[in-house]
Automatic annotation (TrEMBL):
<feature type="domain" description="Serine acetyltransferase N-terminal">
    <location>
        <begin position="14"/>
        <end position="118"/>
    </location>
</feature>
<dbReference type="Pfam" id="PF06426">
    <property type="entry name" value="SATase_N"/>
</dbReference>
<protein>
    <recommendedName>
        <fullName>Serine acetyltransferase</fullName>
        <ecNumber>2.3.1.30</ecNumber>
    </recommendedName>
</protein>
<keyword id="KW-0808">Transferase</keyword>
<dbReference type="InterPro" id="IPR005881">
    <property type="entry name" value="Ser_O-AcTrfase"/>
</dbReference>
<dbReference type="InterPro" id="IPR053376">
    <property type="entry name" value="Serine_acetyltransferase"/>
</dbReference>
<dbReference type="InterPro" id="IPR045304">
    <property type="entry name" value="LbH_SAT"/>
</dbReference>
<dbReference type="GO" id="GO:0006535">
    <property type="term" value="P:cysteine biosynthetic process from serine"/>
</dbReference>
<dbReference type="InterPro" id="IPR001451">
    <property type="entry name" value="Hexapep"/>
</dbReference>
<keyword id="KW-0677">Repeat</keyword>
<comment type="pathway">
    <text>Amino-acid biosynthesis; L-cysteine biosynthesis; L-cysteine from L-serine: step 1/2.</text>
</comment>
<dbReference type="GO" id="GO:0009001">
    <property type="term" value="F:serine O-acetyltransferase activity"/>
</dbReference>
<keyword id="KW-0028">Amino-acid biosynthesis</keyword>
<dbReference type="InterPro" id="IPR018357">
    <property type="entry name" value="Hexapep_transf_CS"/>
</dbReference>
<comment type="similarity">
    <text>Belongs to the transferase hexapeptide repeat family.</text>
</comment>
<dbReference type="GO" id="GO:0005737">
    <property type="term" value="C:cytoplasm"/>
</dbReference>
<dbReference type="InterPro" id="IPR042122">
    <property type="entry name" value="Ser_AcTrfase_N_sf"/>
</dbReference>
Amino acid sequence: MAETRSKISEIDPTWQRITAEAEAAVREEPLMGGLVHACVLHHKSIERALSYRFAAKLASNEMSMVVLREIADEGFAEDPDLIASARADLMAIFERDPACHRLLQPILYFKGYQAVQAYRIGNWLWRQGRKDLAYFIQMRTSEIFGIDIHPGARIGKGIMIDHAHSIVIGETAVVGDNVSMLHSVTLGGTGKEEEDRHPKIGDGVLIGAGAKVLGNITVGHCSRIAAGSVVLEDIPPCKTVAGVPAKIVGEAGCDQPAVSMDQLLEH
C-alpha cells in the first residue's frame, strides 16, 4: 500500500500532501489512527478517499455504505469535473479560511466541504435523470450536515461555505466560480412559481452570514452581500449591499471579495 501511495503521489502533489498530513496526524495523535487510515491512508487517490467519506457519512439503514460508495465511484469515473471541482473547493477553503491549516482538515472535519461534495454527486445523478436517487442524497445531506442544496442547482468550482450550518440553495439557483458564503445563507424563491425562480450569483461573490437572496435576481461578479441582508433586487458587479431590504452602500472594496473575505463596510 505504501508503494502504491508513493507512485500516485509522484503524479499528484495534492494527494501527496494530504497523505503526508495524514501520516503526521497519526504520529501526533495515535487515537486518530483508525479514522485517518479509513478515510485517507487506505486509499490510492483523492477521489477514492472522497468516495469513502461520502458513503461513510450518508449511509443509513435505508441505503448501505457499499451502495453509496459504488454511486460515488461511478460518478467520479464518468465525470472528471466532479474531482476537478472537489480539488478547487479544497484549495478555496485552505486559502480563504484562517481556521484551515491543512488540506486534510476539510476532508475529515469540515461539513461545508463534505456537504458540497455530496451535492455534486447528487447533481451528477440529477443530470443523468436519476432524480429519485438525487433527492435521496439531498435528504441525507440535509439530515447529516444541516445543509439543504437542491440537486438541480448549478454550482461552480472553488466554493467555500464556512461553518455552513443552515445553508439553503434552491432548485434553479446558479452559483458561479470562486464564491464564498457563511452560515445561514438562503438562495431562495419568493412564491409558488415552478419555473426559474432562484438567484443567479456571479463569480467571486462574498455572501455574509444570515443573508437571504430571494427570487430570480442576479448578483453581479465580485460583489459583497453584508451579513443579515435581504436581497430582493439585482446587484451590479463589484458593489457592496447591506440592509433589509438590501441597498448599495459602496464599492466591493477589492478585486476578489470572496478570496479576501473582508466583510467590513468601511475602511
